[in-house]
Records
---
Amino acid sequence: MNDIMLLENSKKTSEIKTVLVVDDNKTIQESMGFIIESLGRKVWSASNGEDAIKKYQKCKPDLVFMDIRMPKMSGVEAISEIKKIDNKVNIVIVTAFSGDNDVMELARTDSIKIIDKPFEIAEIKKCL
Amino acid sequence: MKLRTKILVGFMSIIVLMGILGGITYTNFLEINKQFEFLIEHDLEVLQNAQQLQKFIVDAETGQRGFIIVGEESFLEPYYSGISGFSELVKIEKHLVSDDPSQMKKLEEIEILFNEWKEKAAIPEIELARKFHTNDINFSIIENQLKTNVGKNILDNIRIEFDEFIIIENELKNKRFERVQEIKSLTQINIGIFVSIASILGISIAMILSQSINKSLKLLMLGTTRFGKGEFEPIPITGKDEISDLSESFNEMAQSIKFSNKKLQEMNTELKKTEILKEEFVAMISHELKTPLTPILMWAGALQDKKLMGELNDKQTKATKTILNCATELAELISDIFDSYKLDLEKIEFSKQEINLMELMDSVKETAEKLIGEHKILVENTTNENVTVYSDKKRVDQIFKNLITNAIDFVDQDSGKIEINASVKGENVEFMVKDNGVGIKKEFQEELFKKFYQIDASATRKHGGSGLGLSICQGMINGMKGKIWVESEGGDGTTFYFTLPIVNKTTK
């Protein structure tokens, strides 16, 4: 049900051409970047919330993959900041802490999709 | 003052008052009794005797007159009996009035007068009459004697004296009666006054007592009520009685409970801190384990994707597949351990989404087929309920995945059959995962939902897994207010059932 709702809310799959990957772990950041680029999308990367906001303002990507626990600024804060800039932003949370209260709250109120770490590539493909 | 003393003093004063009242009443009763006795035994006797004495005098006079007229000796009998009766009775009468000098004097006077009558009138007249009747003298001599009126005068005097005597005696009798009446009313007044005083005193003592008891009891009650609410303030102690003793011991108890409570709270805070640290530690471990697994899974997955990484040879394909399977298994194990840990702490929160039963069971079937892979196991979905339930989809999926993984492990890889079904049972949906596998013996069924339980724990066991799956299923189902149970006759397949509340039942 969530998937269906998200697809309805988000832009058409074909419209996603640019992606911002936010993760403090460099390996994950690079791996995701490589795979998404291989799938024919333009990718930017950020290592924390602050960085993510700056990159979002600058690049205005069609989709953001957002980690939650990061130094400087958490993903939850970054999402609320980015939402202030662009209310219709298309965000997918990628986290090992999907059970955290604030993450569940975000998923519930803002209907944001969550991908649990570790994940299969199919999960990423579904979002593009 | 001690409560006991207070009550004792109160009752004693009432008892003493009642005792005094009883004493006075008894004395009055004795007095009345005495007066009545006197009235009956003494006064009435005196009056009766006085009448009898008068009668004796009349008898003597009558006898004497008769003799004078008739001259027969027999006529003198009443005379003699009157005289002797008088002299005997007057002694008794004198004794009776001996306490009253004036009456005594009157009696003595009467006695003297009677003797005078006897000496001066009766005896000389009888002598003359006797001489007249023997014809010794003329009647004129007697007539002369009688005409002197000596006897009559004396007898008149006696009558007057007697009348006075009786009047005085009657007056005395009346006085005594009045006295009895007086004592009677005095006793009534006494009883009235004493009963009133005793009642007022009793009520006052009872009020003072109950007030003082009530006051201390109220304080104690207030203290215990506050104590019940977790406030350990000491109770103010007033006076020195049993209640204040009780209050004191209560205060001591409250103090020691307060102290141990504080200690417990401190310990609890410490424990909570440790608990939080532990939770954070487990979360961190889980994160740190999942983080390196993420790129492993991603790359292993990517390697399988020809479009992404190009064609692999057979050896490379096999290696990649093994890496992917093991990494997936490891990821699931980490997930299970973390879930199990959170379930124990009741820290898992369940969300609620609209779930259409038909769609849910279709997707469960897809998941099952994906898990079965290349094996020839048939999956059949017999659901026929187009109903929407409100539950945590992710968790329901997880439960099904666990149950189906178990079922796949226990059925024959070539002829296995798994049936899934969901049906509405009252306020709940009952889900079913049925297999035609080896079944579970009754003795194992109860243990099944325990953590780390393996039916076959031997090293060569066919069926894998951490042993956490069913315990997690049960924890989650309980968390969502449902139930899980198993039905199996050993060797004849196994059926797992679980229920979840529909919450708001809406039919499309």
---
Amino acid sequence: MPERRIPVQRRKLLLDVVIFRPDPLDFTEFSARGLIDTGATVSGIGPRVVEALGLVSHGKNRLGSATEERLVDYYLFRLGLTTSVTDAPQWPFVFDRIDGFSWTRDTEFDVIMGMDVLTQCELRLVRDNCTLAFG
Amino acid sequence: MDADAQRREIDANYDFLQRHLTDMLADHAGEYALLKSCKVVGYYGKVGSAYDEGMRRFPDGRFSIQEVTDEPLHLGFWSVAGT
């Protein structure tokens, strides 16, 4: 199973990912920064991804947090991961379509990888050594 | 795609889903409902299947997909969605 080493940065697990539109034959891509978040039951995307790929919402749902609950727009997209970050071309492993929430504020990451994706992977965190196996 | 029309489609279908959610949960909890003009086109186990069928039947993309659930999805990084 392909494996990706993830540096622990300021108590966050951040990695480079690739986001595609939901159509299986559309490989227009957007290189994005992803946050691994085991506290999120679903994955989500930020405003830069929505704008860059011209995504159109196909639903809305309640999203709960520690302090409130609100309705947010949902978008379908595909998430791609590679085993390492190099200059050499590498075709990513692409997960099936994700029904993810969206947010509007600028953040240091563009994608939240929630438990819907992480339960398809092997995530290991031992002290500050983190690896994510997938595929 | 007309963004305002798609917004109206999503809003109307969401209201329809909420009004019929109790009945839907009995047989379709956890599935994805493909909705068009306040009618259920079908239920699907995977959201991708619902999307593919939606695009096949409605090439203009004017439809919505809603998970059949009465539980809010939860966000760990709460401050992001809070804005």
